[in-house]
UniProtKB/TrEMBL annotation:
InterPro entries: AB_hydrolase_fold (IPR029058), Fungal_lipase-type (IPR002921), Sec_MonoDiacylglyc_Lipase (IPR051218). Residues 326-337 have a biased composition (Basic residues). This is Fungal lipase-type domain-containing protein. Residues 108-266 form the Fungal lipase-type domain. Signal peptide: none annotated.
Amino acid sequence: MAELSAHLSQAATEGAFDLAPLQTDEGLLRTAIVLAELCHFAYVARASDIGSSTQIEVPLQSGRTAVAATLIHFRESGLEADDEDAHLADDAVQQFGVWEVAGLGLAVAFRGTACLDDVVIDTNIAPVPLGNPPGRRPLHVHRGFHAGVVRHLDEIVAAVRARDAAAGKRLPVWVAGHSLGGGYANCLALHLLASRSTAELFGAGGGAVTFGAPMVLHAADPDALFQRLRALEAAAEATGGGAGGRAVLQFHNFVNNADVVPRLLGTSLDAVHAFLAAYVPGLAAVHATARDYRPFGSYHFVLGESIRSPLHTSAPPTGLGLGRVRQQRAGRRRNAP
């Protein structure tokens, strides 16, 4: 995580990104730097060790500046990474923090895998329905992440709404996480979008930025899934509350080199699963389930000294990146033997 954060900072400096708003494509790396640093803080065992405010250095064309981040809520898991009393519990508490970041909005950052409970959550991949929308088939998501998000959903929503009320307006909401925490972040974003009562929290913009996150969406029919996701995103954006017109949500996933975590689920290539099964006991037994996990949003691959974004252009970001996903799938069909 530290290596990825340092690389993003260097790439942003070399890219000479200056004072463009953080919600534009040009500001993506700076947004990612801030959220990556907050993901670092989410690993800290106790809120008292973080402090109520911090300064995050962000590269700019003219040098470096500091962005203020104020901690407004922190949930401690109660378990250290090497805690001998760590236990396998269905009700394990996930660790996360909620910050208000100057120029960005509110940020919810989840900790990644740090104890045995987290490993159980990682491997609990059976898909479960996300809510029960009237007249529609529900989305299906990763069971382990679903359980954790449901456990803390009301707590997070209450923290966001309380800060919005204090500010007298809606603030953009970003969710972020590293590894397992990225799975929580994406699952939380989907939970918020899937319910009318919480979709309005995204009315001022924001979205999700993850680092090495596993896939969380499960569907046998990806086309129907992507259409449903786009409708949910549009409904959230239409609730308004953003400055300067209708807000645009963004969803980005950074993958560092050969990081295996984002690739454990979702591939339909038997050769890949055969290789991974040699390192992940039990994966072969759930091959059929695992390969129907689907990506959403834009993907950015950190490869050596560069960051590659397939089909990513300088045009304004398209939220869930559905157009890019369709182009990628079409390209695979054309290149298939």
